[in-house]
């Protein structure tokens, strides 16, 4: 990669960092999800008191007390066994570095820096994977989408374990995609460690292990390497079980069983498809809908897109098998966002090469929501203006496709892409989370 390309990548990464840092301690508002504090509490208590203590809404805990910090209520329990400890240790250790050594001292402006820093790593892996699988242009476009799309950027601010799981998943995919033609024992060991660390971040982190196993099976890698990966990941899973039994004994198994008996159903998939969510509020971001469309569209070419398809479908199935159908939050989708950005870029680059009827679909899914946020909300959207913008965003691509104007088609398609990127940048910069 030459200096010009490297500079471009760095500039886009800095743009994404700027958007994530802008009002990061204000929006989403404190209390939009109190789960942010649970991980800080967990880490501080483990480091200082050598016991897992945090807040939990699970009613099985008997040792609990009430805590109110600046009008925010927390039912504190011990030992806290809702989640594995790795992300909590990271957030708690970070808090202690800033002198926030008690529950009452925790500040969002401090702990939210952790997911933002982690999102920089995730962003870079998005580019690396895109370049590796498709090409430099696809990598850059995927990075642009991932950095500027509002639902991707704002969810990247929140202190949830998915923000650590995501770079682990992307690192595993990048490593395998780089070395799969001649996968060594050393690479398998490293992938096993990544899989184990992902599980210690969140139980749903098992997606990393399952994704790598699916790659190994698909590429007909020798069974001994699959067993080696399983053994190493199993050591980390055993470590979590030992951790839980050490602090909770029978309570640990009760908590795991309680979380495994959540109300499940097809409503989860319906919500995922129809309702993009930022933390606890629906936000209709067109890049989300185009990302899902592109992700499912990419399933038609498994050989080209297997490194995107397998982790995505595995994570979707795991989510449907574990997430309460009536209690879906925006952060559950964070590990899927990079794959939506990658598939979006891959499909768009292909669509823009020659006349294609997917261009009006792209303009429709992304354009109408940018019309709403950038024009409709601040100025009011009259029927005439809405029809005019619809014609520009959707009618023109249809006409150019009908009349086979390839040169004009390419100019319009690229113009629309960069126009929508600029629009999403503005929307993200101006974002205010509803109370």
Explain what this protein looks like in three dimensions:
- The protein is globular and about 70 Å long.
- A hairpin with a 2-residue loop joins strand 4 (277-278) and strand 5 (281-282).
- It is built from 19 helices and five strands.
- Among the domains are: 31-111, no CATH class; 345-429, no CATH class.
- It has helices spanning 3-21, 35-49, 86-97, 108-111, 113-133, 136-148, 150-155, 162-179, 185-201, 206-218, 223-248, 250-260, 267-274, 286-297, 302-322, 337-353, 358-379, 383-402, 406-429, and strands at 54-55, 64-69, 72-77, 277-278, 281-282.
- The chain starts with a helix and ends in a 6-residue tail after the last helix.
- It is mostly helical and 435 residues long.
- The longest helix is centred in the middle third of the chain and has 26 residues, at 223-248.
- Helix 2 crosses helix 3, helix 5 (113-133) runs antiparallel to helix 6 and helix 14 runs antiparallel to helix 17 (358-379).
- It has a three-stranded antiparallel sheet, with helices on one face. Strands 4-5 form a two-stranded antiparallel ribbon.
Q: Uncertain spans, ≥5 residues at pLDDT below 50?
A: none
- Reading side by side through the largest sheet, how are the strands ordered? 1-3-2
How far apart are the first and last residues' alpha carbons, in Å? 45 Å
**Helix-strand pattern, N to C?**
HHEEEHHHHHHHHHHHEEHHHHHH
Give the structural class: mainly alpha
Characterize the overall form: globular
Count of separate DSSP helical elements = 19
| Helix content estimate | 55-70%
Mean pLDDT: 94
Instruction: Tell me the strand percentage band.
Output: under 5%
Gyration radius, in Å: 22 Å
Main sheet characteristics: 3 strands, antiparallel
Number of DSSP strands?
A: 5
């Amino acid at each position: 990669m030459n200096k010009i390309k490297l500079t471009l990548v760095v500039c886009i990464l800095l743009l994404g960092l700027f958007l994530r840092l802008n009002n990061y301690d204000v929006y989403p508002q404190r209390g939009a999800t109190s789960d942010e504090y649970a991980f800080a509490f967990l880490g501080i208590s483990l480091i200082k008191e050598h016991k897992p203590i945090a807040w939990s809404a699970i009613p099985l805990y008997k040792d609990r007390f009430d805590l109110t910090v600046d009008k925010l209520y927390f039912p504190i329990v011990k030992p806290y066994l809702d989640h594995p400890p790795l992300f909590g240790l990271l957030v708690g250790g970070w808090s202690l570095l800033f002198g926030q050594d008690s529950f009452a001292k925790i500040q969002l402006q401090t702990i939210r820096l952790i997911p933002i820093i982690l999102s920089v790593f995730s962003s870079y892996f998005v580019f690396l994977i895109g370049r590796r699988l498709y090409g430099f242009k696809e990598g850059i476009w995927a990075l642009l989408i991932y950095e500027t799309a509002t639902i991707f950027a704002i969810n990247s601010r929140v202190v949830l374990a998915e923000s650590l799981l995501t770079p682990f998943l992307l690192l595993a995919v990048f490593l395998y995609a780089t070395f799969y033609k001649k996968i060594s024992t050393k690479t398998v060991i490293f992938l096993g460690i990544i899989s184990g660390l992902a599980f210690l971040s969140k139980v749903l982190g098992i997606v990393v292990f399952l994704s790598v196993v699916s790659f190994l099976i698909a590429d007909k890698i020798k069974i001994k390497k699959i067993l080696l990966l399983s053994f190493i990941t199993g050591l980390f899973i055993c470590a979590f079980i030992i951790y839980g039994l050490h602090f909770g004994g029978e309570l640990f198994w009760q908590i795991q069983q309680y979380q495994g008996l959540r109300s499940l159903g097809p409503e989860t998939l319906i919500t995922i498809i129809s309702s993009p969510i930022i933390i606890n509020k629906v936000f209709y971001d067109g890049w989300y809908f185009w990302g899902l469309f592109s992700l499912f569209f990419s399933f038609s070419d498994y050989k080209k897109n297997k490194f995107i398809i397998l982790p995505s479908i595995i994570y979707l199935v795991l989510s449907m098998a574990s997430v309460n159908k009536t209690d879906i939050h925006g952060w559950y989708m964070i590990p899927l966002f990079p794959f939506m950005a990658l598939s979006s870029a891959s499909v768009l680059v292909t669509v823009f090469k020659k006349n294609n009827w997917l261009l009006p679909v792209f303009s429709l899914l992304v354009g109408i929501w940018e019309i709403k946020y950038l024009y409709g909300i601040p100025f009011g959207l009259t029927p005439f203006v809405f029809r005019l913008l619809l014609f520009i965003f959707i009618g023109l691509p249809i006409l150019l496709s009908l009349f086979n104007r390839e040169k004009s088609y390419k100019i319009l398609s690229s113009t629309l892409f960069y126009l929508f990127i600029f629009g999403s940048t503005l929307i993200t910069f101006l974002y205010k989370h509803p109370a």
